[in-house]
């Protein structure tokens, strides 16, 4: 008997990739292989709609919510499920984006096979708190949160387009005009950083290996810090991450700082603009998400 009372497939019908076709194919396969489980296609209508669809679907029953998307689309679905405040909903992602870091790292078998087998596991999430007091906002990330060079490149990729040659041009352009960001740590110390990444998985951006030994279910996240060192050293770090990896990195369950200047922040593939003097906290949410891998 399936652990799901229904399956909801969420996708962007206007995706420039193959999300619509992939969603239709998954719908057909699951309908054939799980004839007793209703399977529904839910196309999104606007930015952020996947979060709303996932939140509403998660509030009743035991649904499996499948995001046919990249890391950013899956971020919306995961965040929507967490907003619903339920432990009954299960999430999964069918890769249909650019990097697809989460699916690539956690994949253990073809998704349809895992769904049919009802192979549900729990993983940690990163809980992001922006602001303080009554004005604080909470978001969740399944793979990583980054400030500094990582979201700057992501912003330029959205503007410049994706595809191998365009990606190379974008990264070079971003790197050439990048400026470090000032932050204040929780203990009052000030730092100027080139990059600060909190990682729940050990790879990102298709090519970079951030750490060794980190897992999405170990109750901790890795903290990859690149303090202001000059562009040549930043470039060396990027090359090392893409070739042999950065090696073991320190891990934590909590990290807090204040952004002292406006800066972009990236949750998985989603981008957020931080204003100056904004408190930011990252905490581990252990075993927070039920997922199919």
Automatic annotation (TrEMBL):
It comes from the Bacteria. InterPro entries: ATP-NAD_kinase_N (IPR017438), Diacylglycerol_kinase_cat_dom (IPR001206), Lipid_Phosphate_FormReg (IPR050187), NAD/diacylglycerol_kinase_sf (IPR016064). One of its GO terms (molecular function) is kinase activity. Keywords: Kinase, Transferase. Residues 2-132 form the DAGKc domain. Its cofactor is Mg(2+). Pfam families: DAGK_cat. Belongs to the diacylglycerol/lipid kinase family. This is Diacylglycerol kinase family enzyme. It comes from Geodermatophilus poikilotrophus.
């Amino acid at each position: 008997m399936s652990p799901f009372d229904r399956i909801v497939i969420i996708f962007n019908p206007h995706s420039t990739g193959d999300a619509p076709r992939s969603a239709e194919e998954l719908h057909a396969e699951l309908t054939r292989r799980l004839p007793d489980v209703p399977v529904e296609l839910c196309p999104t209508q606007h930015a952020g709609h996947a979060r709303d669809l996932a939140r509403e679907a998660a509030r009743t029953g035991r649904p499996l919510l499948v995001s046919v998307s990249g890391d950013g689309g899956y971020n919306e679905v995961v965040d929507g499920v967490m907003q619903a405040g339920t432990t009954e909903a299960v999430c999964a992602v069918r890769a249909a984006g650019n990097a697809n870091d989460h699916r690539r790292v956690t994949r253990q078998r073809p998704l349809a096979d895992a769904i049919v087998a009802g192979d549900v596991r729990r993983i940690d999430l990163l809980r992001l708190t922006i602001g303080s007091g009554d004005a604080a906002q909470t978001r969740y990330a399944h793979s990583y949160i980054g400030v500094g060079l990582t979201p700057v490149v992501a912003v330029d990729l959205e503007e410049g387009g994706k595809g191998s040659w365009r990606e190379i041009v974008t990264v070079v352009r971003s790197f050439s005009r990048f400026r470090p960001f000032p932050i204040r740590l929780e203990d009052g110390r000030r730092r100027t950083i080139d990059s600060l990444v909190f990682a729940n998985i050990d790879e990102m951006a298709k090519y970079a290996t951030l750490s060794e030994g980190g897992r999405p279910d170990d109750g901790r996240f890795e903290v990859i810090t690149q303090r202001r060192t000059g562009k040549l050293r930043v470039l060396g770090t990027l090359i090392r991450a893409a070739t042999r990896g950065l090696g073991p990195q320190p891990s934590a369950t909590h990290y807090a700082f204040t952004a002292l200047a406006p800066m972009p922040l990236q949750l998985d593939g989603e981008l957020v603009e931080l204003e100056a003097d904004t408190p930011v906290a990252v905490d581990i949410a252990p075993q927070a998400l039920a997922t199919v891998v």
